[in-house]
Amino acid sequence: MPEAKAMSNYHTSVLLEEIINFLKVKKDEKYIDATLGGGGHTKVLLEKGALVLGIDLDEDAISYVRENQGNNKNLTLAKGNFKDIDEIARLNKFNKISGILFDLGVSSHQIDKPERGFSFLKEGPLDMRMDKSSALSAETLVNLLEKGELNDIFNKFGQERRAWIISNGIVRARRIKAIKTTGELTKIIQEAYGIRRDDITDFTKNVINKRVFQALRIAVNSEIENIQEALPKAYEILESGGRITVISFHSLEDGMVKKTFKDFERKDMGKILTEKPIEATDEEIAINPRAKSAKLRVFEKN
Q1: What Å distances lie between residue 257 and 15, 77, 228, 253, 271, CA to CA?
Q2: Which of 11, 182, 275, 280 has a CB 3.0–4.6 Å from the CB of 37, allowing a cystine?
Q3: 157: part of which helix (H) or strand (E)?
């Protein structure tokens, strides 16, 4: 199976061939997959003889990869937040790292499970936690934040042009009863757009709900702050010539990664290997539409 098409039933890995090529994977050298997911990237790293530390916040991901690849002696699995990548590496005796991968965003598996609350197309609890043991959920934010705070989240993380109207609708609705499900939230968003029918198409739902759900997910999981904290730590544990690869799906994430890498380069810490972000080919997008918004940036340590 070609590397670009390697995948698991759990989640289809994005920009797989490009990642493997940039990491220059060598046998018996150490690599960290900081966002394990379904283990698609890790699987190819292991096939090339690499020693891999796979990290994920989601216990479902750890369990899935343990069941399907856990008998590989070159694989070490760790549940944790990649913002603690240096400590997780130390605890698992992973030093002299040759390459580190971050594949940001939500996995297909998480989206497809209604009970996780990530999808506006599936009725479920308003959850969105990547770490199911976390106390903070989307339901908490929607029901407790002030109108202005909700507006700021929808603006900053979702670039939602009707953020104030939606925030106002949320506050009005929760005065009557708490907002607990994805369906209840989508109804409020639809009303903010003047759509009161329940039989709207999935395409229309995608257009009007995507930004708010994305913004809440990013806020619940502190996604921007986590990658911002993780990159300097990832740099520190790399050996000379080691590479950091980051796939992002949101303009804020991509902009932050770009700025961090430029700061590294300006301080003579290494060099940026992607003058412009690498994007998926039309062929990959046809197989995996999620790849359409993916952007890959790579940095090499001196």
Answers
A1: 17, 25, 8, 6, 14
A2: 11
A3: helix 147-158
Residue 160 has pLDDT above 70, yes or no: yes
* Per-residue pLDDT tens digits for 95-114: 999 999 999 977 777 787 88
Q: What is the DSSP letter of 46?
A: H
Which two three-digit tokens encode residue 143?
């029901």
Between CA 226 and CA 58 the distance in angstroms is 15
Core vs surface per residue 151-177: b (16+ CB within 10 A) or e: bbbbbebbebebbbbbbbbbbebbeee
130-134, 170-174, 217-221, 279-283: least confident range: 130-134
Pairing state of beta strands 97-103 and 30-33? parallel
Q: What pTM, to 2 d.p., does this model score?
A: 0.91
Residue 4 has pLDDT above 80, yes or no: no
Task: Give residue 1's pLDDT band: very low, low, confident or very high (50, 70, 90).
Answer: very low
